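Reminder to self: tokens first, then the designed residues, so the page reads top to bottom the way the pipeline ran.
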């Protein structure tokens, strides 16, 4: 069933709604940022370097991958290619979200919005677009506190990294997968969703075990897209909901 988007509220109300929407993600991302900062400090990065990386890159997955292969001097080509591979999923997310921001967003707002696009922001924006029109004010209400939370948490983790020590002893390392499990389940639509998730998981696991590196991210994404396309095509042909 298609839901008719509601007319957007006043910009101030939209901004407030965006801030309220992102609060659970801020809470979940806080320990992840602290972990990244602490691990960065143990790798020899200064709090200033962690601040600049978090503010300029703003991609937790790519930053963690970069940290795994970080050495002195830094292998810039390897770091760049690895970050590119990990973040190629943003091409798919941007393509999915682009029609929802085609109207109401100025070109510079779309460009800036996609620069700060994350898995969490994308998931919440897609959910919002199913029932309401996406507005720059609502998007900004989500992005600004989420962005500041990540930068501040990562920097704080770098400052206190030597005090925290091994962060896995607190169980905080599970915050990252727990966050993505919650995001995935929010999109659950029955067996068709299960088939997409299973295909992505199998392709990603198989690629990780055989090729290593960051190729498993691409393999998982492509397998999921392929199965989603096939199941959607079958649904269109049979007229069944496929859920």
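Designed residues (243 positions):
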């Amino acid at each position: 069933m298609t839901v008719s988007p509601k007319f957007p509220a006043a910009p101030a109300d939209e901004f407030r709604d965006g801030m309220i929407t992102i609060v659970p993600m801020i809470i979940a991302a806080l320990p992840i940022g602290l972990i990244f900062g602490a691990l960065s400090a143990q790798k020899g990065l200064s709090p200033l370097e962690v601040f600049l990386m978090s503010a300029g890159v703003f991609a937790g997955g790519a930053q963690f991958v970069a940290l795994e292969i970080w050495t002195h001097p830094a292998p810039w080509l390897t770091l760049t290619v690895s970050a590119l591979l990990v973040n190629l999923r943003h091409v798919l997310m941007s393509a999915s979200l682009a029609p929802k921001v085609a109207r109401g967003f100025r070109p510079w707002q779309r460009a800036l919005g996609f620069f700060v696009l994350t898995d969490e922001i994308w998931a919440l924006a897609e959910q919002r677009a199913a029932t309401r029109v996406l507005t720059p004010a609502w998007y900004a209400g989500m992005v600004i506190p989420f962005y500041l939370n990540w930068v501040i948490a990562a920097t704080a983790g770098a400052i206190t990294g030597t005090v925290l020590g091994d962060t896995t002893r607190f169980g905080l390392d599970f915050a990252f997968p727990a966050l993505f499990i919650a995001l995935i389940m929010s999109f659950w639509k029955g067996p068709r969703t299960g088939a997409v998730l299973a295909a992505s998981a199998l392709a990603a696991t198989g690629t990780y075990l055989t090729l290593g590196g960051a190729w498993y991210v691409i393999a998982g994404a492509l397998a999921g897209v392929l199965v989603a396309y096939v199941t959607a095509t079958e649904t269109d042909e049979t007229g069944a909901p496929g859920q």
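The chain has a mean pLDDT of 81.
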